[in-house]
From TrEMBL:
CDD domains: TRX_Fd_family (cd02980). Pfam families: 2Fe-2S_thioredx (PF01257). This is Thioredoxin-like [2Fe-2S] ferredoxin. InterPro entries: Thioredoxin-like_sf (IPR036249). It comes from Paenimyroides marinum.
Length: 87
Protein backbone atom coordinates (compact mmCIF):
# COMPACT_ATOMS: atom_id res chain seq x y z
CA UNK A 1 0.00 0.00 0.00
CA UNK A 2 2.91 2.33 -0.62
CA UNK A 3 1.99 3.66 -4.06
CA UNK A 4 -0.82 5.85 -2.74
CA UNK A 5 1.35 8.97 -2.31
CA UNK A 6 1.10 10.19 -5.88
CA UNK A 7 -2.57 9.33 -6.35
CA UNK A 8 -5.67 11.09 -5.03
CA UNK A 9 -7.44 7.83 -4.46
CA UNK A 10 -6.65 4.16 -4.33
CA UNK A 11 -9.18 1.42 -4.88
CA UNK A 12 -7.92 -1.90 -3.61
CA UNK A 13 -9.36 -5.15 -4.82
CA UNK A 14 -8.80 -8.35 -2.96
CA UNK A 15 -6.85 -10.81 -5.03
CA UNK A 16 -7.01 -13.62 -2.53
CA UNK A 17 -7.95 -17.16 -3.46
CA UNK A 18 -11.69 -16.64 -3.22
CA UNK A 19 -12.07 -13.07 -4.43
CA UNK A 20 -9.89 -13.54 -7.51
CA UNK A 21 -12.49 -15.97 -8.80
CA UNK A 22 -15.20 -13.32 -8.72
CA UNK A 23 -13.56 -9.92 -9.05
CA UNK A 24 -12.80 -9.88 -12.78
CA UNK A 25 -16.02 -8.15 -13.94
CA UNK A 26 -15.94 -5.43 -11.30
CA UNK A 27 -12.23 -4.92 -11.78
CA UNK A 28 -12.41 -4.51 -15.54
CA UNK A 29 -15.47 -2.32 -15.20
CA UNK A 30 -13.58 0.04 -12.89
CA UNK A 31 -10.52 -0.06 -15.11
CA UNK A 32 -12.62 0.87 -18.12
CA UNK A 33 -14.38 3.70 -16.30
CA UNK A 34 -11.06 5.10 -15.07
CA UNK A 35 -9.51 4.92 -18.52
CA UNK A 36 -12.54 6.41 -20.28
CA UNK A 37 -12.69 9.37 -17.91
CA UNK A 38 -8.94 9.90 -17.78
CA UNK A 39 -9.11 9.45 -14.03
CA UNK A 40 -6.61 6.63 -14.22
CA UNK A 41 -3.96 9.30 -13.66
CA UNK A 42 -5.45 10.16 -10.28
CA UNK A 43 -6.92 6.92 -9.15
CA UNK A 44 -4.93 3.77 -8.66
CA UNK A 45 -6.46 0.32 -8.84
CA UNK A 46 -4.31 -1.92 -6.71
CA UNK A 47 -4.52 -5.45 -5.44
CA UNK A 48 -4.46 -6.49 -1.82
CA UNK A 49 -4.18 -9.80 -0.02
CA UNK A 50 -7.05 -11.77 1.46
CA UNK A 51 -8.87 -9.64 4.01
CA UNK A 52 -10.49 -12.50 5.85
CA UNK A 53 -13.93 -11.75 4.44
CA UNK A 54 -13.97 -14.45 1.82
CA UNK A 55 -17.67 -15.12 2.36
CA UNK A 56 -18.33 -11.66 0.96
CA UNK A 57 -16.15 -12.07 -2.12
CA UNK A 58 -15.27 -10.12 -4.09
CA UNK A 59 -14.06 -7.51 -1.60
CA UNK A 60 -12.90 -4.01 -2.53
CA UNK A 61 -11.55 -1.21 -0.34
CA UNK A 62 -11.87 2.54 -0.84
CA UNK A 63 -8.76 4.07 0.65
CA UNK A 64 -10.01 7.62 1.29
CA UNK A 65 -13.19 6.39 2.94
CA UNK A 66 -11.45 3.60 4.79
CA UNK A 67 -14.38 1.43 3.80
CA UNK A 68 -14.62 -2.13 2.61
CA UNK A 69 -17.12 -2.91 -0.14
CA UNK A 70 -18.37 -6.44 -0.22
CA UNK A 71 -19.83 -8.60 -2.95
CA UNK A 72 -18.91 -6.05 -5.57
CA UNK A 73 -20.66 -6.85 -8.81
CA UNK A 74 -20.26 -4.92 -12.04
CA UNK A 75 -23.33 -2.89 -11.09
CA UNK A 76 -21.94 -2.15 -7.64
CA UNK A 77 -18.61 -1.18 -9.15
CA UNK A 78 -20.34 1.45 -11.29
CA UNK A 79 -22.16 2.83 -8.26
CA UNK A 80 -18.98 2.86 -6.27
CA UNK A 81 -17.29 4.78 -9.07
CA UNK A 82 -20.07 7.39 -9.20
CA UNK A 83 -20.22 7.79 -5.45
CA UNK A 84 -16.55 7.86 -4.48
CA UNK A 85 -14.58 8.68 -7.57
CA UNK A 86 -16.57 11.09 -9.72
CA UNK A 87 -18.45 12.89 -6.94
S1 LIG B 1 -9.98 -13.95 -0.70
FE1 LIG B 1 -10.76 -11.95 -0.60
S2 LIG B 1 -11.29 -11.74 1.47
FE2 LIG B 1 -10.40 -13.68 1.37
Amino acid sequence: MSKCKSFDEVIYFCDGKKCCRYNEEAKSCLKELLNDTGLNKNVLLEKMKCQGMCKSAPVFYINSEKKYKKEVTKKKAKKLFDKYIVA
